[in-house]
């Protein structure tokens, strides 16, 4: 649809946030939180685009709490997110893939929201210039929690504050850094996508009230089949049925698409339909993806768009995290695709 003169400048993220606030869907504190996160995403988008010419590719030379070799951009993106959230004055605690434990924001800047995030998702792709992203979720505090690092008792309380089920999420979203930079978010009232217009440095509404396709969608499955031999039998049978069932029923079999960045694979699934999965296997029974800042925020989005997020046996948003970096098997996509998958894992 072409933009008429009356609409120019009216469909930026900030205008959308003000409209949500005026409608009472969010309060001004949340609007500030989301605007700060959008600022972090703009900065990361610029860094990702210039990584190869700004000496920001390659390893940082440290390992994170996940046991992963941190990329330079993992570390830098984490700092950008932390600084933007701290500067917002609305954040009390942050939990990040790249922080061993939750980080309390010093009292002078502290607010009432908890933000959990994966500052750079799919970072194994960064040196190859393939799509990467950031993922975030926002909770309210269950209790006042100001942390100083050496106070074990306070830190323990802080962890319980952060470890909330996805059902408690007030907002969640992701930003994909790809052929376009798209910020997709929900505040619990539908899913909205904003594309960064680099010519003016603003996110502009480009995907209004997103809904994942149902059976009319594309037959796409997105798994790292390199782990097939370690999958449980039911899952192997499911995978075989995707590849042969179509042909037997005379319909087109499924297509395989796997970017290796959850954000990229998720965004395509949300737009085209299908299923993405990172199952558990005999080596890693809980799979690879982290519940708190990958699976739960993405599951809030997919449910708001009419899809499902599951471990294969349990709804993701119902799970009570026991620790910040806990992993869960993850399947997400069109409702009928997840239902079909779950029927093999009974
Ligand atoms: P991160 O880069 O934040 O550690 O996440 C990577 C995840 C996810 O983005 C992606 O779907 C998955 O790892 C890919 O894992 P494999 O390379 O094992 O397929
Ligand atoms: Mn990582
Ligand atoms: Mn990730
Ligand atoms: Mn990451």
Automatic annotation (TrEMBL):
Task: Tell me its EC number(s), please.
Answer: 3.1.3.11
The UniProt catalytic activity note for this protein reads: beta-D-fructose 1,6-bisphosphate + H2O = beta-D-fructose 6-phosphate + phosphate
Top enzyme class, one word, equals hydrolase
Q: Which cofactor does it need?
A: Mg(2+)
The pathway noted for it is: Carbohydrate biosynthesis; Calvin cycle
- What residue stretches are annotated with the Fructose-1-6-bisphosphatase class 1 C-terminal domain? 218-345
Alphabetically list the UniProt keywords: Carbohydrate metabolism, Hydrolase, Magnesium, Metal-binding
GO biological processes: fructose 1,6-bisphosphate metabolic process; fructose 6-phosphate metabolic process; fructose metabolic process; gluconeogenesis; sucrose biosynthetic process
Q: Where is the Fructose-1-6-bisphosphatase class I N-terminal domain?
A: 20-207
Task: Give a Gene Ontology cellular component term annotated to this protein.
Answer: cytosol
Molecular functions (GO terms): fructose 1,6-bisphosphate 1-phosphatase activity; metal ion binding
The record's similarity note reads: Belongs to the FBPase class 1 family.
Q: How does it assemble?
A: Homotetramer.
Protein name as it appears in the record: fructose-bisphosphatase
Organism of this sequence: Pycnococcus provasolii
Give the taxonomic lineage as stored in the record.
Eukaryota, Viridiplantae, Chlorophyta, Pseudoscourfieldiophyceae, Pseudoscourfieldiales
Q: Which residues of the full protein are shown?
A: 70 to 415 of 415
């Amino acid at each position: 649809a072409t933009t008429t003169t009356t609409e120019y400048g009216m469909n930026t993220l900030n205008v959308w946030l003000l409209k949500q606030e005026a409608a009472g869907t969010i309060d001004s504190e949340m609007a500030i939180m989301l605007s700060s996160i959008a600022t972090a995403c703009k900065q990361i988008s610029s860094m990702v685009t210039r990584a190869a010419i700004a000496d920001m590719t390659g390893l940082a030379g440290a390992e994170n709490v996940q046991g992963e070799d941190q990329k330079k951009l993992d570390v830098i993106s984490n700092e950008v997110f932390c600084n933007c959230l701290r500067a917002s004055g609305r954040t009390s605690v942050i939990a990040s893939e790249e922080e061993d434990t939750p980080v309390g924001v010093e009292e002078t800047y502290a607010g009432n929201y908890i933000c959990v995030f994966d500052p750079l998702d799919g970072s194994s792709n960064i040196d190859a210039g393939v799509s990467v992203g950031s993922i975030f979720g926002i909770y309210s505090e269950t209790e006042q929690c100001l942390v100083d690092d050496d106070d074990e008792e306070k830190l323990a309380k802080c962890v319980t504050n952060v470890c909330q089920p996805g059902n408690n999420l007030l907002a969640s979203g992701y930003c994909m850094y790809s052929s376009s930079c798209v910020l997709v978010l929900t505040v619990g009232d539908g899913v909205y996508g904003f594309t960064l217009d680099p010519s003016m440095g603003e996110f502009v509404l480009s995907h209004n009230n997103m809904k994942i396709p149902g059976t009319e969608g594309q037959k796409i499955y997105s798994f790292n089949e390199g782990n097939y031999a370690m999958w449980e039998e039911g899952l192997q049978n499911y995978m075989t049925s995707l590849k042969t069932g179509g042909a037997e029923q005379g319909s087109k079999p499924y297509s395989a698409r796997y970017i290796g960045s959850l954000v990229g694979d998720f965004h395509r699934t949300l737009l085209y339909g299908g299923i993405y999965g990172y199952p558990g296997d005999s080596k890693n029974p809980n799979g690879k993806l982290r519940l708190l800042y990958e699976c739960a925020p993405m599951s809030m989005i997919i449910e708001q768009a009419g899809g499902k997020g599951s471990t294969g046996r349990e709804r993701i948003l119902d799970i009570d995290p026991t620790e910040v970096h806990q992993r869960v098997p993850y399947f997400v996509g069109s409702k009928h695709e997840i239902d079909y998958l779950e029927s093999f894992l009974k």
